[in-house]
Design a protein that fits this description.
By secondary structure, the protein is mainly α. The chain has one domain. The protein is built from 5 helices and 2 strands; from the N terminus they run ααββααα. It has a two-stranded antiparallel ribbon with strand order 1-2. It starts with 17 loop residues before the first helix and ends with a helix.
């Protein structure tokens, strides 16, 4: 007879993006929990794990804050410029910066970055 507890998932964890890895590295000491079970002898005393729920709630907030700050900066720069040529340069510069940030901080593919910057 088949027991449901005998099934094991062999799906690997998705590779975290750069901003998730940065948060784990910089703020990891505040977000980690000590392992409750004694580790094997080869692991040592300092074995910690991260709660995926905590980090997955923090990362979207940071990404939205960065994206909205760039939108506000773009609108503020448009307010002070009256030349059409300067406005086109500002649009191109912010498009390149936003595409660079999306490419560096996320796991987005080129087509996704292109679609996001086109929007």
């Amino acid at each position: 007879m088949i027991d449901q507890r005998d099934f094991v998932s062999l799906h690997t964890k998705e590779t975290p993006d750069r901003i998730t890895r940065t948060i784990e590295h910089v703020f990891g000491s505040y977000l980690r929990d000590k392992v409750r079970t004694p580790p094997p002898l080869s692991c040592g005393e300092d074995l910690y794990y991260f709660q995926n729920g905590t980090i997955s709630k923090i990362v979207p907030v940071i990404v939205v804050a960065i994206a909205s700050s760039f939108l506000v900066e773009a609108m503020a720069s448009f307010y002070n410029v009256s030349s059409i040529g300067a406005i086109l340069v500002i649009v191109a510069a912010f498009t390149v910066v936003i595409a660079g940030i999306l490419g560096l901080l996320t796991n987005a593919k080129r087509a996704e970055v292109l679609a996001a910057t086109a929007a």
